[in-house]
Amino acid sequence: MNSIRRSLLLLLAVLVVAALVPAMVAHADMTAPAAPAVGAPAPDFSLTTNEGKPASLKDFRGKWVVLYFYPKDFTGGCTLEAHNFQRDLPKYEQAHAVILGVSVDTAESHKSFCAKEGLAFKLLSDPDAKVSTQYGSVMEYNGNKLSARNTFLVDPDGKIAKVFMGVKPDSHSEEVLKTLSGLEKH
Fold first, then answer.
1. Domain enclosing residue 114, as ranges
2. How would you classify the pairing of strands 97-103 and 64-69?
3. Do residues 178 and 93 both lie within one domain?
4. Which member of 78, 102, 123, 138 is catalytic?
5. 2 backbone dihedrals φ, ψ, rounded to 5°
6. Is residue 113 within a helix (H) or strand (E), and if so which, with residue range?
7. Which of 148, 185, 186 is closest to 169 using CA atoms?
8. How confident is the model over 25-36, as pLDDT tens digits?
9. pTM (predicted TM-score)
10. How far is CA 153 from CA 3, 113, 121, 136, 144, in A?
């Protein structure tokens, strides 16, 4: 009898969760800003770099921009993703592209992260997650806002050319390079 009772309770729990999830997803979609769409102007911003200087998206007009958002300096996936971008940096430079990493970490944390990991591209500090929010790339973890792992390829005219949501850090740089190569030919 206990086995039947447990099975019924489990079934009831599954049905309750199944009924609540669509409502939770609908609510989340209404409160979180959408990511900019392909073809739309990329929202401009000014953030502090790992060098302690301001950088704006408009500073890079005329070049391709790989604007990648990531959760946290000195963590496994974020370090792997950064190393792969660094490894491929000469290929990005050949394509007239710059890499800009964005997280809610401080400029000082970015400076230490770049020094420790040998990164030669800019990391931008978005401590209030304002830019991450503009790009639909903010998430909560343990009550803190973090940047979600998304990337936006911005064309030389400042328009969104490609959006990568929820990327995999181990193969992402190759994916971006392949896309960039295809877009350059058009």
1. 36-184
2. parallel
3. yes
4. 78
5. -60, -35
6. helix 107-117
7. 148
8. 333 433 557 899
9. 0.81
10. 54, 23, 16, 14, 27
Amino acid at 146: L
Which residue from 17, 76, 65 is spatially nearest to 41, judged by alpha carbons? Answer: 65
78 given a catalytic annotation:
yes
Q: Which two tokens stand for residue 128?
A: 């209030």
* Alpha-carbon span 68 to 120, nearest angstrom: 15
Q: Please state, for a pLDDT cut of 90, what percent of the chain lies above it.
A: 76
H/E element, 29:
helix 2-31
Domain shared by 141 and 161, yes or no: yes
Residue spans of the chain under pLDDT 50: 11-30
Please tell me whether residues 77 and 98 are part of one structural domain: yes
Do 16 and 42 reside in the same domain of the chain?
Answer: no
Tokens of 61: 């007009």
**Count of the separate structural domains present in the chain:** 2
What pLDDT digit, counting tens, does each position of 100-121 carry? 999 999 999 999 999 999 999 9
Are residue 135 and residue 112 in the same domain, yes or no? yes
- The answer to whether residues 150 and 82 touch, using CB atoms and an 8 Å cutoff, is no
| Residue recorded with tokens 């790989």 | 66
Q: Do 59 and 16 have their domain in common?
A: no
CATH code of residue 128: 3.40.30.10
If you count them, how many residues does the chain have? Answer: 186
Q: Is residue 173 located within the same domain as residue 142?
A: yes
